[in-house]
Structure formats: structure tokens, C-alpha cells
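Sequence, please.
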């Protein structure tokens, strides 16, 4: 069976290159072109090959969140379906990167693909407050926005809780931006009574948001006074 039909179409429909690292994306695309030009002796073997690439795509998207314990501490396992881009100034946020608190005083610039006509909710939390070794205030919520139209940015949404930048008192803290797709506009969302002891899972369950569609996180630690800018 020729791979240009059937299996290769299946693979292209599931792999989102924008969710892959640039290096693996290039390798995957080369492999896909090779598959398209080749013939396969059986339908089952071609499906097996396609499924392997599908697993690679999902693993690359999710693995940093597993290694960083974002999946587990804050959210459950999910399949990313939206590409989210986060910048503090000119600094692009990639999973596990370091951001100086002085660079994150103002809200980040967030854009995401999403689906036209759909609405999204964005939450930013710190699961390591006040200390990663004793996170007795887990989670500390830094930002909540709702009713963000797909394919736009948080400015177009409704701010439920104003942004507060990272203020890690001790240790290296994770700051996690979680994006959910809404099933309907938010009629009434009350501001949390306190930023401490927030629970992203509970928040999502209460608003019937389901699993995240995208998540990005960065690390930050307290800066020495003479290095703050």
C-alpha cells in the first residue's frame, strides 16, 4: 500500500509541528516525506509507523511537563491541542527556562492559536509557595483570565484576578500558565478570596473546563539585590 494515502493523512492530522522542538520537527518532517515517497507491504505496518511518529509528537510536547512535575502537582496528563506562546519582553518562555522576577513584573505577552469562535481561560499559579521543600501554600495563584477569544491574547478576555509577578522568597519556584477551553461564556466567576491554597484542578472542575489544552511553565528564584534591574 502506498503511504501517501490513508496512514500518512492520519499522521498529518494528529501531529502538530508547532508543538514540537525545532530539531525534532525537522527530523519528523523529513521522515514523513520519506514515508510519503515509499511503499509499504501492508496496511498494518504503515499504521504502526505512523503511530510511532504520533507518540513521538505527544512525548515531546508533554515530557518537560512530566519531568518538571507540572503534570502531577498541578494538572493531570493531557494532550496539547493548542500552541501557546509566552514572552516577557523579548524573552521567550520555554518549559523549564529561567526568568528573573525583575523581568516578570508586568504581565507576559501571551498568544495562542485556539479555535475561532471558542473561548478560553488562562490561569497562572505557583505550586512551590512559600518554599519548594515545604509548599504549605500550594498553589499561589498569580493571574486568572476568562472569555479569551481563540487565536487572540488575554487582553481580549475578562480579568478575574489581576496579575502579580513572581516573588519567590526562597528556592527555585515553578510558575505555570495553564490554558483551558471553555464550553460556554463565563456568566459569573468570583475572584478567589485569597491567592494562597488555590487549586487549579478544583477550579477547572467547578467551571466544567475539563483538561488543559496547553501549558507552559518557567522557573524563577529570588534575585540578589545588587542584580535586580
Amino acid at each position: 500500500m502506498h503511504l501517501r494515502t490513508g496512514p500518512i493523512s492520519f499522521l498529518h492530522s494528529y501531529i502538530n509541528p508547532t508543538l514540537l522542538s525545532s530539531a525534532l520537527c525537522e527530523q519528523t518532517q523529513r521522515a514523513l516525506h520519506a514515508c510519503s515517497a515509499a511503499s509499504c507491504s501492508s496496511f498494518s505496518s504503515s499504521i504502526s509507523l505512523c503511530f510511532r511518529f504520533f507518540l513521538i509528537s505527544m512525548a515531546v510536547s508533554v515530557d518537560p511537563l512530566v519531568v518538571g512535575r507540572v503534570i502531577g502537582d498541578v494538572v493531570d496528563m493531557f494532550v496539547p491541542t493548542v500552541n501557546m506562546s509566552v514572552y516577557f519582553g523579548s524573552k521567550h518562555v520555554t518549559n523549564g527556562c529561567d526568568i528573573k522576577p525583575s523581568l516578570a513584573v508586568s504581565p507576559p505577552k501571551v498568544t495562542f492559536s485556539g479555535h475561532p469562535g471558542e473561548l478560553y481561560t488562562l490561569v497562572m499559579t505557583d505550586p512551590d509557595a512559600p518554599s519548594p521543600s515545604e509548599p504549605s501554600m500550594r498553589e499561589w495563584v498569580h493571574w486568572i483570565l476568562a472569555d479569551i477569544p481563540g487565536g487572540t491574547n488575554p487582553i481580549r478576555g475578562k480579568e478575574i484576578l489581576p496579575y502579580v509577578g513572581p516573588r519567590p522568597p526562597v528556592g527555585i519556584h515553578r510558575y505555570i500558565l495553564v490554558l483551558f477551553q471553555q464550553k460556554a461564556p463565563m456568566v459569573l466567576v468570583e475572584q478567589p478570596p485569597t491567592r494562597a491554597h488555590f487549586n487549579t484542578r478544583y477550579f477547572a472542575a467547578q467551571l466544567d473546563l475539563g483538561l488543559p489544552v496547553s501549558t507552559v511553565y518557567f522557573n524563577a528564584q529570588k534575585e540578589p539585590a545588587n542584580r535586580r534591574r
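Residues 43-67 form the longest helix (25 residues).
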